[in-house]
Every structure is written in structure tokens, then in C-alpha cells.
Amino acid sequence: CNDLEFCYETLVNYVTAKGVNNGVLEIVNLRNQNKIEKPNLITIASNGSVGSVFFQNFYFVVSGDILVFEPKKEGGIDEYIGIFLKTVMDREKYKYSYGVKPGLDRVKKTTIQLPVDEEGLVNWDFMREYVKSLPMAIFLDLLDSGIDINYSEW
Questions:
Q1: Which of 30, 87, 105, 115 is most buried, with most CB under 10 Å away?
Q2: Distance between CA 97 and CA 93 in Å, rounded?
Q3: Phi, psi of 75 (to 5 degrees)
Q4: For 120-144, how does the pLDDT look when each residue is reduced to its tens digit (9 = 90+)?
Q5: For residue 30, what is the DSSP state?
Q6: Dihedrals phi, psi of 68, to nearest 5 degrees
């Protein structure tokens, strides 16, 4: 759900510490939720499937076992940059286990390597264009355009 006003009348993803299905356990009614997270954020499971990283591109709500991060990019990130960051952050999952959970302080101290431009600034455009160049990126374009995909024809 991308329109918050409309979302109050509909259902949205409830993100938990699952390691599959983008961390979504079930669909819930927003009207009954206390904290609503905005789209285009990164979630990390601090319990359950410890260290699982997902990009959330719709309004959503979370369980207490989820850390929510907003990348420091003016204007926010889109799904292409979100997928790039999710993939890079996933490489840090090996550091965590049930005994060494990714708490807020521990995750904030984590350093990830990102592409930079000639001036040494994070190259957001490179990330976007790289993900767009991948074969699966066509599906993101189709979903954004609202075209129905009929998988039975494959």
C-alpha cells in the first residue's frame, strides 16, 4: 500500500523475524496498529531468523523483533537501491547468531562497502542502474507499471 490515507481502510504487511517471504508473517488492518512504517525502508530481524535483511517498499508494521533503518539519502531510496542495499547488508548476516543478535547498537557500528563516485561520495545512481541491468529487474518495471503478469503462460 503506497497511499497512507487509503491504507487505513485496507490491509498491509506485518513484518516479523521470519527469514522468508520478505519477513511477512501475515496481512493486518492498519486501523488496529500503533506504529506505521513508511515505504522504502530496510528491516533486519534481531530475533528468530537473526540477521535477515529485507527491503520494504510499502507501508508496513513490525513486530518487536525487527529493526527498521532508513538509508541516509536525500529524497529517500527507490526499490532498485533498496534491493542493492539489502543484498550488501545480507553479507553481514554471518556475524549474527542466537547468542550474538543484531541489536541496534551493534548494527549501527557495522560498516558496509558501497560504490563511490570520483568525489568519494556514495554512488546511488550506480546502484540503481546496476540493479536495473539485472535480468530480474524487468519484473520490477512490470510491477511498477501496473501490468498484470500471467505466470500460467510461462
A1: 30
A2: 8
A3: 85, 0
A4: 999 999 999 999 888 876 666 555 5
A5: G
A6: -115, 130
